[in-house]
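Take a careful look at the protein record below. Let me know whether the structure tokens fit the sequence:
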Amino acid sequence: MIGAEAIVRCLEKEKTEVIFGYSGVAIDPFWNQMINSNIKRVLVRTEQNAAHLASGFARISGKVGVCAVTSGPGATNLITGIATAYADSIPLVAITGQVNSDMIGSDVFQEADITGAVESFVKYSYLIRDVNDIPRIIKEAFYIAGTGRKGPVLIDIPFDVQNAELTEKFSYPESISMRSYKPTVKGNIVQIKKVIKEVENAKRPIICVGGGVHLSQATEEIRKFAELNHVPVVSTMMGIGVMPSEHPLYFGMVGNNGQPYANRAMNESDLLLMVGARVADRAVNRPDLITENKVMVHIDVDPAEIGKNVGPTIPLVGDIKHIFQDFLEQDDHADDHDDWLELLNGYKKEMASCRIPRQGDYVEPKDFITRLSNAMEDDAIYVADVGQNQMWSCAYHLVRNGRFLTSGGMGTMGYSIPAAMGAKLADKKKQVVAVTGDGAFQMSMMELATMRQYGINIKIIVMKNGFLGMVREHQHYAYDDNYSMVELKGDPDLSLIAAAYGMGYMKVNGNSDIDAELKEFFKDDESCLMEVRVDPLELVKF
């Protein structure tokens, strides 16, 4: 058995269903051995998107996503996808080919120090020197990626190691134990009892949920706890979907681009449970303010996050699912916070923004997003890109029993289409919709060929305003409408793009019967691209 075959055998032992990637000489031994495997192979059209597809797959399947590319430019193209996964704690194993071991450091053709290049945004990385180490390293990589605070792990494998024969009998470890890596799962029972006591005593408690709740698959436990104790819930961008959007206890997204009533609710609380969230600048602009006159509990599986940006009154390290299961066991009575909820509902009614459908050339985006949500299936997967479309989606998409995905920490334009493709492959029965701007669309539209090749049917909505809208909006406020490098002149005709890739196409403007158009858009499971004309001067206003 050669190293390349050993890699494939290891992936099969991990029950890998699909691997996303791009070929090249330095990774060819691996791809050649993949021919004999039942693992599905998906050839993307640019390496960055291999990581984005793997990310979308991981987030919906709950498994570790896998991608593989060649050395040099193939590996460096993957970097943005790896960094995007790291910023949102998405579990990936990224495999890169490398030049022959004896040539490393010689600046030979297509050599890049990829382990060094990704050092600051992977959980761990390996450069395999001994072919016999492959089973152990791959077992460790999947374990590290998928446990604790999840994230990407990179494995760099030189060409000669892939072709070398194992001198020891192939044996894949059944389990793994690493002295230097032992993530905490169970929360400290003393701290858990302290939190329960604070919930009982609080008059204005609130829970702020982040992406860690999804990663821990703790949605059900959070909902039960909130409902038992009548505690309102807000979310970070990555926590959207933990509570259904129209749940009476949910008060929207917090942060610079969040709902004003959500921020006010968090500021006026006397007990704040920060759950699976980093307390980063986008969600909490002034961390010092959210701790004033309140007890703050920070619950996270990563001890490094607790106290990094704000000091909690009660720190609690552990897996969120396990911790909230313990909460539910310890908390044997329901609490009443009706006065607090009545106050927050008053804020919500008072501060809700107005959505007026447009007539003429342009669609009112906030109204459109809500209509889109109502036209989607209850358990659909909605993938927002980055920019104004993301802000409108966060505020006005209605999550019921589905999922909301986006690039939160890194804010990577072009994420939505490949991530939606990965999500569709993770659950083929689910309706999947990617919502993007015209700038981000052009960063990933090459993947329409991948969709066509592999029959990955998703719905794509392009909010077209002819600008890099979010940056234009910043320049509107910061530079008094002195615009620079934001106007997208020379954009392609999207109807021709759709036709070129064999997709359906629709166009919506302010005079359209939007509900009828959306009904037509969703009439079957085939891929379709909808162009939505948005006013170039539209702002993100809540």
The chain is about 35% helix and 15% strand. The mean pLDDT is 94.
